[in-house]
Amino acid sequence: MEWTGARYADTPTVEGEIWIGAPPGRVWGLVSDIHLMPRLSTELRGVEWLEGRTGPALGARFRGHSAHPSFGEWSTVSEVVAYEPDGPEQVFAWAVGDPELPSARWRFTVVEQDGGALLRQWMRMGPGRSGLSYAIDRMPEKEQKIVFVRMREFERSIGATLDAVKRLAEGAGDGGTGDERADS
Fold first, then answer.
1. CA-to-CA distance for 180 and 163, rounded, in angstroms?
2. For the whole model, what pTM was predicted?
């Protein structure tokens, strides 16, 4: 990610992609399993479906518990805003907080490509307030640097998550050994 001077209100985005030598269905099964994600992340610690849900569906909500050395610990509620398990492009996306004014949007897409699957992970910061907003409130003159540093963290995290999903999917569904945790 190059320096853009983006502000939080600019709703900056980051995306990564990776080709995986495994059937798209296997990749989809991994990225649509929210319970796998804490094992692939150093920030997300745990998740649970809310309101009696047991899996993803449009409108389903889940709570995520996260921790970061600079921000401490926090929990958020997210809502699934796209869930398309069938078709040429499979999509799983959620909005963190209010779906109309989320603090972030995250999305996985899986597309069949060259005998395997192309996996993309994308996120957009804002426009709703987040924990980052409080840091910006305290140091408004550093807003662009704060946003840039956080986006770089997301970029590294996305890369590590994609790499971990690739290892799991190509590992003939070994189910994960617990050592897939991303480096960022």
1. 9
2. 0.88
Q: What is the DSSP letter of 15?
A: E
pLDDT number for residue 1: 55
The Cα–Cα gap between 61 and 1 comes to 31
Task: Say how far apart CA 47 and CA 80 lie, in whole Å.
Answer: 14
State yes or no: cis peptide before 69, omega within 30 of 0: no
Cα–Cα distances (Å) from 36 to 39, 42, 47, 134, 162, in that order, read 6, 12, 9, 29, 13
Judged against a pLDDT cut of 50, whether residue 55 lies above it is answered with: yes
Residues 6+ apart with CB under 8 A from 148: 1, 3, 4, 5, 6
In whole angstroms, give the CA distance from residue 170 to residue 32.
17
Sheet containing 44-49: give its strands across: 13-20, 116-125, 104-113, 89-96, 72-84, 61-68, 44-49
Q: What is the pLDDT of residues 65-76, one digit of tens each?
A: 999 988 889 999
pLDDT at 173 over 50: no
The number of helices, as runs of H, and strands, as runs of E, in the chain is: 4, 7
Q: Scanning the structure block, which residue is given the tokens 């994609």?
A: 162
